[in-house]
Design a protein that fits this description.
Keywords: Heme, Iron, Membrane, Metal-binding, Monooxygenase, Oxidoreductase, Transmembrane, Transmembrane helix. By secondary structure, the chain is mainly α. It contains 17 helices and 6 strands. The strands form 3 sheets. It has a two-stranded antiparallel ribbon with strand order 1-2. Strands 3-4 form a two-stranded antiparallel ribbon. Strands 5-6 form a two-stranded antiparallel ribbon.
């Protein structure tokens, strides 16, 4: 009898529950829309002094980027139309000021008393799969981690890496030799990317992955490319700026799957190293056995209070180094080779200089690097023309006034 009465009450209340949920969703939608409109109004006022390309009310300028290799030329065209700087909209309320003139950049870099928060928020950190590592941390945490990681980039630490990098390069060149003999074409960047990942794994983590010979079957490589593409897609799709919508979407499912693969890989690298060092209690004994790599320095790093990195911080720094390090390096190397191919006369000068420096050897060593000044200049010129990281993003914490009198308020 009691069960019957309970069921009857539930049936009577159910229509009212539907009504309540519908009203709740409507209120939430109105609140969100009001919030977006008020934020848009505030942003429009902040950028009132900076004209820019027309933007769609909902999608901003995102629809103008076709991801077909012409996007950079679109930015150049806008730069010609809007000297010094112009706003770019990523949705109805997210806008950034694209600064492209040296005088404006000088105002920012030379300003005193201004602090700059990195543009990526904590939610964006998760999106970029880097945790809160050196690339996206700020304040005292950044200073502490920067100080702890600095020893990892000392010349004495870097010198033994040259032989390991040469071995990785030889593996790549052996693959290219087969292409040359068969007269097949190849996508150079993919090979260089595998080579730089192989180098980082060997040098920074003492890990022989064989990723160059495994190629496209390497799960970590595929996960990194998947994450890169999905992050780019999320930035370009306004609805995906919502964590909830992205989480529930098919792309969000693919992202979490790739995220798990990438993190499992770095977890395994850390786990192996901890096991290898389990019997070691002094840093000096490690140095006596072999060269010191980046992961060793992370594991043994201590601040003035003798506190090291937490497991979470350790994971974030390893992810940052692996995820960001190999791809940008691969881009830089690929464009260097592209520039040399476009200018065979400079390529010949570099080849002759390197052959003279090697003196019959087939491997470049640390002390040979200062024997190739012309090649070094070509490398730096290529990096100037095609920088792997062509821009930096910051959020100002105080108002800033540029040389022409235009002012940008805090928070932009």
């Amino acid at each position: 009898m009691q069960l019957t009465e309970a069921l009857l009450k539930y049936q009577l209340a159910w229509p009212h529950m539907h009504y309540f949920l519908a009203v709740l969703c409507l209120v939430a939608a109105v609140y969100k829309l009001t919030f977006i409109l008020l934020k848009r109004k505030s942003v429009l006022k902040s950028f009132d002094a900076f004209p820019g390309p027309p933007a769609h009310l909902l999608f901003g300028n995102v629809l103008e980027f076709k991801q077909d290799g012409t996007d950079f030329f679109k930015l150049l065209k806008w730069a010609e139309s809007y000297p010094y700087a112009f706003p770019m909209w990523f949705g109805p309320s997210i806008c950034v000021l694209n600064i492209h003139h040296p005088d404006y950049i000088k105002t920012i870099l030379a300003s005193t008393g201004l602090t700059f928060n990195i543009l990526l928020t904590r939610s964006h950190c998760a999106s970029f799969s880097l945790g809160n590592g050196l690339l996206v941390s700020e304040g005292q945490k950044w200073f502490r981690h920067r100080r702890l990681l600095t020893p990892g980039f000392h010349y004495d630490v870097l010198k033994p890496y040259v032989k390991l990098m040469s071995d990785s390069a030889k593996t790549m060149l052996d693959k290219w030799e087969r292409y040359a003999n068969s007269k097949e074409t190849l996508e150079l960047f993919e090979h260089v990317s595998l080579m730089t990942l192989d180098s980082i794994l060997k040098c920074a983590f003492s890990c022989n992955s064989n990723c160059q010979t495994e190629g496209g079957t390497n799960a970590y490589i595929k996960a990194v490319y998947e994450l890169t593409n999905l992050i780019n897609l999320r930035m370009r799709m306004f609805p995906y700026h919502s964590d909830l919508i992205f989480h529930l979407s098919p792309h969000g499912f693919r992202y979490r799957k790739a995220y798990k693969v990438a993190h499992s890989h770095t977890d395994e690298v850390i786990k192996r190293r901890k096991e290898a060092l389990k019997e070691e209690t002094e840093l000096g004994r490690i140095q006596a056995k072999r060269y010191l790599d980046f992961l060793d320095i992370l594991l043994f790093a201590r601040d003035e209070n003798q506190q090291g990195l937490s497991d979470e911080d350790l994971q974030a720094e390893v992810d940052t180094f692996m995820f960001e390090g190999h791809d940008t390096t691969a881009s830089g190397i690929s464009f260097i080779l592209y520039c040399l191919a476009c200018h065979p006369e400079h390529q010949k000068l570099c080849r002759d200089e390197i052959c003279e420096a090697l003196q019959g050897k087939d491997t470049m060593e640390w002390w040979d690097l200062n024997k190739i000044p012309y090649t070094t200049m070509c490398i730096k010129e290529s990096l100037r023309l095609y920088p792997p990281v062509p821009g930096i993003s910051r959020q100002i914490t105080k108002p800033i006034t540029f040389f022409d009198g235009r002012t940008l308020p805090a928070g932009q």
